[in-house]
Amino acid sequence: MNFGNKLLYSTSSTALNFIIADNIITPLAYGTENNLQAVLAGQSSLHKYDNRFTPAAPFCASMFNDITCIDGYTCFESQCIKAIQGLEPKFEESILSSSDTIFIISTTKGNIDKLQDILHNEQPEYYQNLNLNTSARKIAAFFGNAAPPIVVSNACISGVCAIITAQRLLETKRYRNAIVVGADMLSLFIVSGFQSFKALSPQPCRPFDAARTGLNLGEAAAAFCITSDNKYSNKSLGTIVAASIHNDANHISGPSRTGEGSYLCLKDVLPNNKTDIAFLNVHGTATAYNDEMEAIAICRAGLQDVPINALKGYYGHTLGAAGLLETIISLHALRQGLILPTKGYNEQGTTNQINISNQLRHTDKQQFVKLLSGFGGCNAAIRIITTKEQESGKHQKNTTPNISVEGNIDITPDNVVLNNKEIHVTAHGEQMLTELYRSHINDYPKFFKMDTLSRLGFIASELLLQSAKNKNIRPDKDCAVIFANASSCIKNDTDYQRTISDAKNYYPSPALFVYTLPNIVTGEIAIRNKYYGETSFYILEKEEQLTPIVKAAMANSNIHEALVGWLECKTADNFEAHLKLIKKNEYE
Amino acid sequence: MNNELLKQQIIEALNLEDLTPEDINDDAPLFGEGLGLDSIDALELFMLLDKQYGIKLQNKEEGKQVFRSVNTMAEYIEQHRTK
User: Fold this and answer.
1) Backbone phi, then psi, for A254, in 5-degree steps?
2) A8 has a pLDDT exceeding 60
3) Looking at residue A546, what is its pLDDT?
4) For residue range A489-500, what is the model confidence (pLDDT) as tens digits?
5) What's the Cα-to-Cα distance from A32 to each of A223, A335, A500, A586, rounded to whole Å?
6) B44 close to A (CB below 8 A)
7) H or E element: which one contains B65?
8) A252 chain-B contacts, CB cut-off 8 A
9) Mutant choice from B39, B41, B51 vs A, greatest count of A C-beta within 10 A
10) Is B56 an interface residue toward A (CB < 8 Å)?
11) Do B50 and A507 touch (CB under 8 A)?
């Protein structure tokens, strides 16, 4: 990755963005307005499934009854395409195919249902079916867009991260328009994993309620079109005015007891006057720990009196679609002056009292905040305004950052080069990573619990940070970890799939399942170094695609230092890491 | 119930690479300070009981009681194992 000494662009003012069209496809309804009406009617698509994914135990979820897949496309791809096709209100079709338009796809596991076929029949075309870059290309190409798309895979906050990535790339004028789409389909892989975490409720979930017993999973696809083209300012449905991503630096699956990351996100995105917020739409998964953590973060941010709602009681947790789906529904509710009821909620079940209700409420305010958190300790928030007048954004920067590279490391199965100097190793592949752990670190037994991708990232980051100790690198709330690769978690996905493939030997491993999210490695590094800054993971075709994403992140956030780069692991003997430690030096 | 065998199974299931059965006291708490185990380790112990001994614990609360120490685990296995 080449950062040079200066940014390629020299914008001193940031561009405004306008959400001009959106769409939601759920088992409840097709189209945003139909979904909003269904929610207002109190409907829920949560049902019990007894034998849907045997040998998984019965579960309660929101699932499409029958999906018609487009010929030549997987179900996941088809749902993304349908979500984009149905974007309303209609806009000039040339936006879709324009070279000024970037497609950003949000998903946690994409085509993971295809992995079973690969294990049964190791044909290269099956790997193609699984690969998220292939899917992203097919989706963009369906609409005549030839630019390499971006896939955001940041666990349950992916949807909001995709929105933030779009907003940043527009603000830095790298692109003029973005099509953001999020989707996930349920499968034995996902259901068994959440069951192994004992996170699923056998009943429809009850966010923030005293009797809540866990979450429900859900299928959905949601999309929107966002532009910085001023000619659309009159058609704007809403504008993203603030965005933030922070890590808890606490645990890869357990929410922080202090709500650290969510609190930092809220603090970043709140307006000067908190009472300007109509409502805060939260994650509200209805697990004991998530809702408790969010209530703590809400109170710490001083939002105990602001109306709160959560939508999981209607749709379940729709994973990679959740951030988009919940943002779009919230946006359209607010445009009608409505604060949607929290279905399933009855009696406050968190230690901290928050302003939540199962009744429809009304508001004349014009902005809301969307909050999410996810595995890997990541949290994200955005604030959206529906009016045309823009406030003077507190996050709009008046300076253009200069980014300096403070160190770099390259690791392949036989070779380690730190700051252009080779480190002597004798072992090969995964054993070489263990050798480096023993010779250079040796004080962090959690290393042995990590999957190979995380071990690779951990070793690379440790060596890099050790070498930079004297360079005034300050770990804190604005240190970020931003990685990308082309194959997501293919090695660990395969290891996990083996624990569920044989019905007679069906023992889904929670420790393997958690590492099937590629962003877990960013969480591991955040925990180790107490980095409370942004942690993000992208699936890209090529390493160079990450550079503009990182530059846009550095230009439009508080991040002042970051570990960034390419982290790929296909097998125990086939991996590569190319990481850099970068620093932002602001100047006028 | 052979405590040494159980300790070996725990070490393998939880990837406690730097530990040997001798490092784990029969009565010492498994969670908290002791071995530094976390919530994912607890979930893996549920899986270990199911896989090795055919025991399906119902909920996390039950797990907390059973997983207090190697001794409490061994006792529970002795009484409830189906294989």
Assistant:
1) -90, 130
2) no
3) 98
4) 999 999 999 999
5) 10, 13, 36, 42
6) yes
7) helix B60-66
8) 40
9) B39
10) no
11) yes
The residue behind tokens 């100790």 is A469
Q: Which class would CATH give A18-385?
A: alpha beta
pLDDT value, residue A471: 59
Inspect the interface and report whether the beta carbons of B15 and A253 lie closer than 8 Å: no
A18-385 and A400-587 agree in CATH topology: yes
- Of residues A31 and B36, more confidence is placed in A31
Q: Does B53 touch chain A (CB under 8 A)?
A: no
A442 CB contacts (<8 Å, ≥6 apart)? none
What pTM, to 2 d.p., does this model score?
0.95
Q: What is the DSSP letter of A316?
A: -
Among A445, A449, A509, select the one facing B47 at the smallest CB separation: A509
Q: What is the pLDDT of residues A339-361, one digit of tens each?
A: 999 999 999 999 999 999 999 99
Instruction: Answer yes or no: are the C-beta atoms of A457 and A524 closer than 8 Å.
Output: yes
Residues of A with CB under 8 A from a CB of B: 196-198, 251-254, 445, 448-449, 507-511, 514
**What is the C-alpha separation between A572 and A486, in angstroms, rounded?**
16
Choose the closest CB to B15 out of A198, A251, A449.
Answer: A449
User: What CATH number labels B3-80?
Assistant: 1.10.1200.10
Number of neighbouring beta carbons within 10 Å of residue A586: 12
Dihedral (C-alpha) A305, A316, A39, A300: value to the nearest 10 degrees?
A: 10
The per-residue pLDDT for A10 is 33
- Choosing among 3.40.50.720, 3.30.365.10, 3.50.50.60, 3.40.47.10, the CATH entry for A400-587 is 3.40.47.10
User: Which residue on chain B is closest to A250 by alpha carbon?
Assistant: B38
SS3 A134: helix
Q: How far apart are CA A567 and CA A485, in angstroms?
A: 5
Domains in chain A: boundaries:
18-385, 400-587
B58 lies within 8 A of chain A by CB: no
Q: Would you call A8 exposed, middle or buried from its count of C-beta atoms within 10 A (0-12, 13-18, 19+)?
A: exposed
Chain A residue with CA closest to B18: the answer is A445
Candidates A445, A448, A511; nearest CB to B40: A511
A513-546 pLDDT, tens digit per residue, is 999 999 999 999 999 999 999 999 999 999 999 9
Domain residue limits, chain B:
3-80
CA distance A190 to A237: 34
